[in-house]
Amino acid sequence: MDRTDRVSRVIAAPPAAVYGALLVRESLEAWLPPDGMRGRIERWDPRPGGGFRMVLTYLDATGSPGKTSDATDVVEVGFADLVPVERVVQRAVFEADDPSYAGTMTMTWHFAAAGDGTEVTVTATGVPPGIDRAAHEAGIASSLANLASYVERTD
Fold first, then answer.
1. What is the dihedral of CA 65, 24, 48, 99, to 10 degrees?
2. Edge-to-edge strands of the sheet including 117-125?
3. Under 8 Å CB-to-CB from 27, ≥6 apart: which residues?
4. InterPro entries, from UniProt (predicted)?
5. How confident is the model over 128-142, as pLDDT tens digits?
6. What sign results for the dihedral spanned by CA atoms 96, 71, 54, 4?
7. How many C-beta atoms lie closer than 10 Å to residue 78's C-beta?
């Protein structure tokens, strides 16, 4: 069955600021890694058909083995669709030997004006079965909290 995970958050910044934070390499490195991780982008091409390669490193890999190695998750992300201030659609593939992490997960970031801010809804479809739902949703929520802190600070 095709699993869907979804998390939303209202961010006190305009849709243009939130959308822009997904298309600047340095900002994505700063806010995308969830709590307990840091990220480094190795390749960057922010256009439809482009994408990036991100290495996420666990700050403490004890009890949280990575998908690519004990301490890392490496993910190839393609930009499938970029609609300014409305949505970003990414296709993510993890580098992993374990077949339970195989396949392409689609991450759709949707932005909707909400009063003086933006409601951001992240919908992940085709989530590999090896990814725990609760941990995945908590990770997305953590990234959204980081995004809020980042754009609210820089807005």
1. 0
2. 4-11, 117-125, 105-114, 87-95, 72-83, 51-58, 37-45
3. 20, 21, 150
4. ASHA1/2-like_C, START-like_dom_sf
5. 999 999 999 999 999
6. positive
7. 17
Residue 72 confidence class, pLDDT cut points 50, 70, 90:
confident
Residues linked to residue 139 through DSSP beta bridges, in sequence order: none
Place of tokens 């995945």: 136
Q: Which long-range contacts (CB under 8 A, 24 or more apart) does 59-65 make?
A: 60/36, 64/36
Domains of the chain by start residue, with CATH: 4-34+79-154 (3.30.530.20)
Count the alpha carbons within 13 Å of 40 in the hemisphere toward its beta carbon: 5
The number of CA neighbours under 13 Å toward the Cβ of 106 is: 12
pLDDT score, position 99: 93
Residue ranges in the chain assigned as alpha helix (H): 15-21, 25-31, 133-154
pLDDT tens across 11-60, in order?
A: 999 999 999 999 999 999 999 999 999 999 999 999 999 999 999 998 88
Q: For residue 153, what pLDDT band results from cuts at 50, 70 and 90?
A: confident
In angstroms, rounded to a whole number, what is the distance separating the alpha carbons of residues 23 and 114?
A: 21
